[in-house]
Amino acid sequence: MTAAAPPSTVSETAGLVPAWLQWPAWPFRAPEPQSPRKSETDLMDLKKFYIGGAWVTPHSSREFPVLNPATEEQIGSIILGDETDVNTAVAAAKAAFDSFSRTSRDERIALLERLLEICNARREEMALALSAEMGAPISMARDAQADAGIGHLEGVLAALKSQQLRETLANGDILVREPIGVCGLITPWNWPVNQIALKVLPALATGCTCVLKPSEHTPMSAAVYAQMIHDAGYPAGVFNLIHGDGPTVGAGLSRHRDVDMMSFTGSTRAGVAVAKDSADTVKRVTLELGGKSPNLVFADADLEEKVTASVLECMYNTGQSCDAPTRMLVERSCYDQVLEIAKAAAAGQAVGNPAEEGGHIGPMFDRIQFDRVQSMIQTGIDEGATVLTGGPGRPEGLDKGWYVRPTVFADVTNDMAIAQQEIFGPVLVIIPFEDEEDAIRIANDTPYGLAAYLQTGDPERAERVAARLRAGAVHINGGGFNYGSPFGGYKQSGNGREGGMLGLEDYQEVKTLHFG
Ligand code: NAD
To answer: Do 239 and 209 contact (CB within 8 A), yes or no?
Structure first.
């Protein structure tokens, strides 16, 4: 890290932020000395990679700053790896595979249970890292972002304990499930720990070894995660962490002949690149990509409650969720009433400092995203949509930090750019529909198919419409995601499923034994 002045907010956040996260305490050491191993490898350093069971100095020396989105100040820096770093990490994972793939299910359960204990003990550390690096308000960083690391672990453990690893088919043949091999795991910045957990845990659970390349924008939570795996006592080389950009490290993993599977979460653009780069070596590729999820609101729903909750869900995590209900489709007969409710809900959504407790939303995660959201808001205005609340610029009183105004557009048509493109900010578009058939047509008129939402007081309609929505999940009347359920999309939202049993199966090969 280059020497620089401490961010001005440190004094405001002191008390919330532990010493290891406060400037200039980098490189930092985890505050809880509970590690079963005490050595120099316990030292976490953002400029190091975790390879072969130790924090090592990368071959590359290309630095990349880590910024706090609320202060716009640099809070750390990482090294972006090169081809040599990719080769070193893959070689470590390959070397570890033979013995780790032969561990028993009970051994792997014991390791995951130890990891669960550590995740619970370090939830606050994780939340603070997430909040600092991507601007998640601390209450939400703790209760949702960091909690996902624990919830998915419980889901994976339950699946692993009940999975049939060997079964007899009706014809007498035996089917066995085996780990697929070395996995390359690429994750985004918006739900950093959630995504890491959904990839690393099934790899570890099934006996695979892996190389994780987290988003270069959120390396702090990834470093805490790597340290927790180290402290859980995983054998050297089973889990490896390298930082880097997409075109070098991401593509390097995708093209590597010793990587057997790529699991990618991020934009559809980069997911397509991963699939193409993986094609020459015929890897398995699973993709969790973007979304523009419809939310069908029928006049028979409890409008006040469901529309308010829907708007807040769209704004949650500052709109930076792949499955956010960003396209609200509203039955014409209740359109005006819904606009009033939606306007009030969005106008009431507080925006503020992520270091403070509360239900407010924070800034966009970085400057590029801030500019993109501003430009999409302008696009909506230029396309002729009506700004119900919000609009361009920063919220009043927030002159520093990449904050945007919660914005609702009415009178949107589904062919507008703001209805078709993922904005990835706190921006909701509202489109009227005439009847059920019209609603289903508009809902499915998108290249994406990650999630869909449905608000209706008629249970039969809920089933009927849900069956026709082309999406990997349908949330009915506010039903939320439960850990252990599969998560993934139709169409250009990806392929494969993460979480629970289906998440394990993506990391397994199936072998058939034919006995003579
Ligand atoms: P991004 O695609 O820019 O980056 C995601 C990751 O891919 C990063 O680690 C990045 O370094 C890497 N990457 C970029 N180009 C690459 C390439 N050519 N080859 C290999 N790796 C490459 O996405 P982002 O901005 O970090 O995240 C936001 C996107 O992620 C949104 O589109 C969002 O919808 C999507 N997302 C999807 C899910 C899901 O489960 N479906 C979950 C979270 C986020």
So the answer is: yes
